[in-house]
Amino acid sequence: MSEDRVRLSYEGPIAIITNDNPEKHNAFDDDMDARFFEILAELRENPDVRVAIWRAEGKSFSSGRDVSQIGRQQLELSHHQLMTRGHRGIQQVFELDIPILVANHGWTIGGVFQRTLLCDVRVAAEGARFMLPELTHGVIPDTGGVACLYQMCGHGVVSDMVLTGRPLSAEEALHYGVVSRVVPREDLDATVREMAEKIAKIPPISVKLGRRVIRNLHEPQVRSSMHEESLVQTLINKAPDFDELKAARAEEREPSFPGVWVKPPGPAQ
């Protein structure tokens, strides 16, 4: 059940979202995505909540997408429709009146990493690592988080992470502002809980409007990036290069990309 693998609990004014799929390093499948979006919708409608914590059980916050489930679920939706559903689901973060604090440990990868970037504050345990491996699977990061990461790290670091898939360490993440604190693993939950308790004591209107001012500095760019990601990812999924990558991996051989260029939308040439 997805409810068991992404759990929501309440401790007074603090909501706690927990990734609990440790056997797969909290890899997300479609059901877990749907449950996560349901939780965001519930938080939108709960006036008693002042702050949310997003944490995880097991060795990693999330290894990203559960690739073992790709292609197994029969959905009567086009790729573009799936993308739209995912974007609408995570954009609920912008509609919340409360902040979300993320407690990262172990690996945080791919689309789930991007979702944490759309949240308000990230704290990392020592040894935590972050990665965007999408291009190695023939696709692009498509959850809007790259726009946030660009604002934090700049062109060079984001290009390195996206194009090579190289990991970002906790120390580097702190240096670039991806996380605000790095703490020992055993102190992670307590540190984030202490932060949440401080926020919960602040007048809710101050938190809501202070958060709004901060979000207005980057939300338009994130929404614009999501729109372009949706269009480009749809084109990639129809490209001969993508078909060749899938065939080569299924046949356990080196790919021979046809290199047929598909012109993306927009003014860039």
> Portion of residues in helices?
40-55%
Share in β-strands: 5-15%
The major sheet is characterized as:
6 strands, mixed
- Our Rg estimate from Cα atoms comes to 19 Å
What order do the helices and strands follow? HEEHEHHEEHEEHHEHEHHHH
How many domain units?
Answer: 1
User: Per CATH, what is the topology?
Assistant: 2-enoyl-CoA Hydratase, Chain A, domain 1
Q: How far apart are the first and last residues' alpha carbons, in Å?
A: 46 Å
Q: Tell me, what is the CATH class? A: Alpha Beta
Could you name the ranges where pLDDT drops below 50 across 5 or more consecutive residues? none
Structural class: alpha/beta
The CATH homologous superfamily is named 2-enoyl-CoA Hydratase, Chain A, domain 1
Q: What's the number of extended β-strand segments? A: 9
Figure out the total of helices. Answer: 12
Mean pLDDT: 91
> Any idea what the CATH architecture is?
Alpha-Beta Complex
Give the helices and strands, then pairings:
Elements: H1 2-5, E1 6-11, E2 14-19, H2 30-44, E3 51-56, H3 79-90, H4 92-95, E4 100-104, E5 107-109, H5 110-118, E6 121-125, E7 129-131, H6 145-153, H7 155-164, E8 168-169, H8 170-176, E9 181-183, H9 188-200, H10 204-215, H11 219-236, H12 240-250
Parallel strand pairs: 2-3, 3-4, 4-6, 5-7, 6-9
Antiparallel strand pairs: 1-2, 7-8
Helix pairs in contact: 3-11, 5-6, 6-7
What does this structure look like?
By secondary structure, the chain is an alpha/beta fold. It has one domain (2-215): 2-enoyl-CoA Hydratase, Chain A, domain 1. The protein is 46% helix and 14% strand. The chain is built from 12 helices and 9 strands. It has helices at 2-5, 30-44, 79-90, 92-95, 110-118, 145-153, 155-164, 170-176, 188-200, 204-215, 219-236, 240-250, and strands at 6-11, 14-19, 51-56, 100-104, 107-109, 121-125, 129-131, 168-169, 181-183. It has a 6-stranded mixed beta sheet with strand order 1-2-3-4-6-9, with helices on both faces. A 3-stranded mixed beta sheet has the order 5-7-8. Helix 3 packs antiparallel against helix 11, helix 5 packs across helix 6 and helix 6 packs across helix 7 (155-164). The chain starts with a helix and ends in a 19-residue tail after the last helix.
